[in-house]
Amino acid sequence: MKEMNNASLRDRALGALQGISLGDALGMPTQSMSHQWIQDAYGKIEGLVNAISDEPIAPNMPAGSVTDDTEQALLVAGLIVKGKGHIDPHELAASLLSWEDSMKAKGSLDLLGPSTKFALEQVRNGADINQTGQTGTTNGAAMRVAPVGLAHRVTSSGFENFVYESCRVTHNTVPGFRSALIVAASVSFGMEAESTRDAISHALRYAESIHSRGAWSPKADVLTRTRLALEFAKENEGNPDFQDMLRNEFGTSVESNESVPVALCLAWHYAENPLGALLAAANIGGDTDTIASIAGGILGASSGTEAFPKEFTEQVSMVSNLNLAPIADSLVDLREQDE
After folding, report:
1. Is pTM beyond 0.85 here?
2. 224 is in an annotated binding site
3. Is 288 annotated as a binding residue?
4. Does the annotation list 198 as a binding residue?
5. Which residues are bridge partners to 339 per DSSP?
6. Is the keyword tRNA processing in the record (predicted)?
7. Does the annotation list 88 as a binding residue?
8. What is the pLDDT of residues 17-62, one digit of tens each?
9. Binding residue per annotation — 221?
10. Torsion-angle region of 298 (φ positive above 0: left; ψ -120 to 50: alpha; else: beta)
């Protein structure tokens, strides 16, 4: 991997945060909708659009609005900066509970996902924080983990420990940890890789070398399914039915062993067309905002701010009141302290 100068690292970190938020906003109006419903309601998502009135999670939200994916990723980023690289699990639990309470107060339907909600309700009721999260197999940990990859090099000591800090409260399972590890490593390698595909390849080899943590789950292995998804992408270059086949063969639900492989597959397939990856995710159906957000973080980290149209990222920042550059700079400051 090539050495990156300071400015390039900062541009890539900002690109990752822009990719997370843009993917989230593009997928916002279609989340939890079927592919057919999306076609009937919007025709085809080709940019930032308002959500329809019967959108299941974000009815009538204006174009450019982000959801829990971006908000929780930025929440994690803030905790990493506050903890000088570490995430305190008690603070993470308290911050997520406070975030959901504020969303409820605003009347929002965009609340915590099923695994996170179940674990944090246990925390709220006095459960030992070391015992929660042992049923969390969904993608909540993976969707918010990108700042770990921005703040730490995979080659630094204990990268997997930083990932585990971000997920064990709510997703203390093999699928929860492994999906977060794959995403965080893809982002971290992306910061200094030659290309998105190089970053993903490095990340999968790294994840294979790390002993999985968390409670066992009988569900299909995330890493294995991600490898299969990338083989699928390689075999279907130029196939006009690529998106339909991807959805049908791998699924697009909130389960980490569906949405995470699909997100990485789209990032791989559209490595030279980052916006195309996010638009494909927005149209594919299912957990569209999370799939697009994860793909956007990886593509942005490996491509920088030039990956996405400036008018789109500026609209998202304006509508959602985001100021991402200082956060990106703070995470890179931590990265530069890694040995």
Report:
1. yes
2. no
3. no
4. no
5. none
6. no
7. no
8. 999 999 999 999 999 999 999 999 999 999 999 999 999 999 999 9
9. no
10. alpha
